């Protein structure tokens, strides 16, 4: 498969996903972006397909339905780098090979999370999976912008702590 | 006027480490007119420097120099290079500690006598007891300003405590309160009252929690008898042909090797670094390391039988608000072998911020089972288990093949649970989960131990020289002018958070060293 065709497949797959989730699109060569253009991620070293696969994989490893794709994109954007390229190529190829063996075009075009998770479970001891998962623990959850989605308030020192702001305000016990 | 001593001054006491043991010892000696050079591997940070952000603070304060791990504990798998969550800074882990300050129970000083021999455990009685320690505990509580001791009031309960307390009382527990905490409930000793800010583990930005960093260290320096050298990593302890220690070699902040002479050396680098230093100081006279004729240096490593229980509810708790560990159930701390194990455990409130919860709730976990737990972060409550674990000869610190930035072999920490530890942890998980279920938890999580903050026992205290490394004063059995001043001297771990006992032992040791020096016997 040529590079162009592979990108075409990626675009089709991603656009198909946009229909179902409204989450993501490939807008042009070198970018993946939200359909409303609220955010975009440029790739220069790895392919759009590889980045889109990483993004889907990140969502499948740590799925939070209320956390938008842009936060996952921030968490995996560091893989668009020379020293990560081989790891990503090999890892995404393995994911796609497993998807094809299960009768799908590739990993990102698999419709059901539980089918993708089965593929991840089969490779969870591999360095690629462990690297991506381990990186997400800080890459995703240490984004201050994500915290409010979970209700976490972060530091309170600048507001004088909670002594007058609800440290003991529980009212349902 | 901060003192400055010559490297060639062989009249000084050199203290290695400035935490609960070394920081307190340094100040107490300085107050008595003893000249002290304290060498601290880390840097100097004060409340205005502390960062209320978990990972950023970890990067600022934690000891992240290499260490290696082995054994069947899960930490060796999930955090193989990080067996401990302790601090490398002036003040040591007193910047990070939660503040829980409870005395050992009487029977815990005599674990072998109280529990009888336990297969596979290297139990021993301490050569001191509750009566001996009572006045020193009183001094320690006054120094730290421990709530619910003296005339100091308890802290108010936060949301996490209220959930914990209601569940505990529903189960019939009686000894339930907001803890004896070295966190001010009212202004005390030039430190302000707790502002319920959370982030107790990241250094208290109000200074409401006692830390040696901004109490004992500057007060010792103010006497003119204490010089603290930060970024000073001790490489080895030196001795003469008579077998007495004569000084230490250390790498200074510029990486240059220096030699500081000493009349007495006190080791207080925590239970990994202290035995590592003694082992790295091996010589032709002491081929197995200093003070190691018993072969006990590094052995009997204890870390408490820990674990956590988190639970989610159908309504918000916001457990991160307020004092992190101001909540305790003490009913299970008794020795009652009918539960299927010897010794006991405390349950204490605990919370982690979202970033650390993601790292520690179920290390390596992923998928919806994991993420739906975090989705409920706002409705979560949490507690920590701290119980007595069994000393085992094979749980030990040895020198690793890996070397640090100075070319010195690092500590390898080998640890496997004793069956008693596992039985106790499972009992505590069950009770902790029952506490939360009693107030309507919809899901509970028996969470595995984190990298250890309580590190104990690797230079243990013993009556007989063949059973341990130090005597009842923390003085090594082998070398009269070499002392151990941190938690590594613990004979057994008891069920209680160790800092108060480390501080009490350090105050007592300072008294002993000063009087022996005055008498000219060391």
Oligomeric state of the chains in view:
heterodimer
Rg of chain B (C-alpha, Å): 22 Å
Sheet bearing the most strands of chain A, described? 3 strands, antiparallel
State the separation between the terminal residues of chain A, measured CA to CA: 62 Å
Helix and strand pattern of chain B: EHEHEHHHHEHEEEEEHEEEHHEEEHEEH
User: Which geometry of chain A do the CA atoms define?
Assistant: elongated
Cα end-to-end separation of chain B: 28 Å
Order of strands across the biggest sheet of chain A?
Answer: 1-2-3
Query: Which strand-content bin applies to the residues of chain A?
Result: 5-15%
Provide the residue-averaged pLDDT of chain A: 86
Low-confidence stretches of chain A: 1-23
Bin the helical content of chain A.
Answer: 40-55%
Global morphology of chain B? globular
Proportion of residues in β-strands of chain B = 15-25%
The total count of helices of chain B amounts to 12
Structural class of chain B: alpha/beta
Write out the strand line-up for the largest beta sheet of chain B, numbering strands in chain order. 4-11-12-13-10-16
Mean pLDDT of chain B: 98
Low confidence ranges of chain B: none
Topology (SSEs and partners):
The complex is a heterodimer of chains A (173) and B (522).
Chain A: H1 3-21, E1 25-28, E2 31-33, E3 40-42, H2 48-61, H3 69-76, H4 82-101, H5 113-122, H6 127-139, H7 147-150
Antiparallel strand pairs in A: 1-2, 2-3
Helix pairs in contact in A: 2-3, 3-6
Chain B: E1 13-16, H1 22-31, E2 36-39, H2 54-61, E3 68-70, H3 75-78, H4 111-115, H5 130-144, H6 159-170, E4 176-177, H7 216-222, E5 226-229, E6 233-239, E7 245-251, E8 257-261, E9 264-267, H8 270-280, E10 305-312, E11 328-329, E12 345-349, H9 354-360, H10 368-375, E13 380-387, E14 396-403, E15 409-414, H11 419-437, E16 443-447, E17 482-484, H12 499-519
Parallel strand pairs in B: 1-2, 1-9, 2-5, 3-15, 9-17
Antiparallel strand pairs in B: 4-11, 6-7, 7-8, 10-13, 10-16, 11-12, 12-13, 14-15
């Amino acid at each position: 498969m040529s590079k162009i065709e592979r990108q075409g497949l990626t675009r089709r797959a991603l656009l198909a996903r946009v229909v179902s989730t409204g989450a993501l699109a490939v807008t042009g060569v070198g970018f993946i972006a939200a359909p409303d253009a609220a955010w975009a991620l440029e790739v220069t070293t790895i392919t759009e397909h590889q980045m889109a696969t990483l993004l889907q994989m990140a969502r499948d490893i740590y799925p939070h339905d209320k956390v938008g794709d842009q936060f996952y994109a921030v968490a995996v954007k560091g893989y668009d780098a020379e020293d990560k390229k081989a790891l990503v190529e090999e890892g995404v190829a393995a994911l796609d090979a497993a998807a094809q063996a299960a009768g799908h075009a590739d990993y990102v075009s698999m419709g059901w999370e539980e089918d993708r998770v089965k593929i991840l479970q089969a490779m969870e001891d591999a360095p690629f999976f462990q690297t991506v998962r381990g990186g997400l623990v800080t890459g995703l959850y240490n984004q201050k912008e994500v915290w409010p989605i979970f209700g976490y308030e972060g530091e309170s020192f600048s507001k004088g702590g909670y002594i007058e702001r609800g440290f003991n305000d529980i009212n349902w016990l | 006027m901060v003192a400055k001593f010559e490297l060639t001054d062989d009249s000084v006491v050199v203290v290695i480490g400035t935490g609960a043991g070394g920081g307190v010892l340094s100040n107490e000696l300085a107050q008595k007119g003893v000249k002290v050079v304290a060498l601290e591997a880390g840097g100097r940070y004060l409340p205005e420097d502390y960062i209320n952000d978990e990972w950023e603070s970890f990067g600022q304060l934690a000891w992240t120099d290499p260490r290696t791990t082995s054994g069947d504990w899960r930490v060796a798998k999930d955090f193989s290079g990080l067996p401990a969550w302790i601090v490398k800074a002036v003040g040591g882990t007193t910047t990070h500690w939660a503040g829980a300050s409870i005395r050992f129970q009487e029977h815990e000083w005599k674990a072998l006598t109280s529990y009888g021999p336990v297969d596979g455990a290297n139990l021993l009685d301490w050569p001191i007891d509750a009566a001996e320690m009572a006045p020193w505990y009183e001094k320690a509580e006054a120094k730290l300003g421990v709530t619910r001791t003296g005339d100091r009031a308890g802290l108010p309960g936060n949301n996490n405590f209220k959930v914990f307390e209601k569940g505990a009382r529903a189960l019939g527990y009686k000894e339930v309160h907001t803890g004896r905490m070295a966190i001010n409930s009212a202004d005390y000793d030039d430190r302000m009252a707790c502002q319920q800010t959370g982030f107790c583990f990241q250094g208290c930005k109000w200074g409401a929690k006692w830390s040696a960093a901004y109490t004992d260290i500057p007060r010792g320096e103010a006497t003119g008898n204490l010089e603290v050298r930060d970024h000073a990593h001790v490489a080895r302890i030196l001795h003469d042909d008579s077998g007495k220690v004569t000084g230490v070699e250390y790498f200074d902040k510029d990486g240059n090797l220096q030699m500081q002479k000493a009349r007495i050396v006190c080791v207080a680098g925590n239970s990994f670094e202290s035995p590592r230093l003694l082992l790295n100081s091996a010589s032709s006279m002491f081929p197995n390391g200093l003070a190691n004729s018993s072969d006990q240096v590094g052995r009997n490593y204890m870390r408490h039988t820990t674990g956590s229980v988190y639970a989610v509810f159908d309504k918000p708790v916001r457990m991160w608000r307020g004092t992190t560990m101001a909540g305790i159930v003490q009913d299970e701390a008794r020795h009652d072998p009918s539960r299927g194990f010897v010794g006991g455990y405390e349950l204490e409130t605990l919370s982690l911020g979202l970033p650390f919860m993601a790292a520690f709730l179920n290390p390596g976990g992923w998928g919806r089972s994991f993420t739906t737990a975090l989705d409920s972060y706002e409705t979560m409550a949490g507690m920590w288990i701290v119980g007595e674990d069994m000393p085992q000869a094979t749980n030990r610190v040895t020198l690793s093949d890996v070397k640090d930035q100075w070319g010195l072999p690092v500590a390898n920490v080998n640890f496997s649970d004793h069956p008693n530890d596992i039985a106790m942890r499972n009992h505590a998980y069950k009770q902790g989960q029952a506490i939360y279920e009693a107030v309507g938890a919809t899901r509970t999580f028996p969470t595995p131990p984190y990298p250890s903050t309580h590190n104990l026992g690797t230079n243990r205290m013993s009556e007989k020289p063949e059973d341990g490394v130090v005597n009842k004063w923390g003085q090594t059995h082998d070398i009269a002018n070499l002392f151990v001043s941190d938690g590594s001297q613990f004979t057994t771990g008891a069920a209680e958070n160790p800092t108060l006992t480390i501080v009490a032992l350090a105050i007592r040791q300072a008294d002993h060293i000063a009087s022996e020096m005055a008498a000219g016997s060391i």
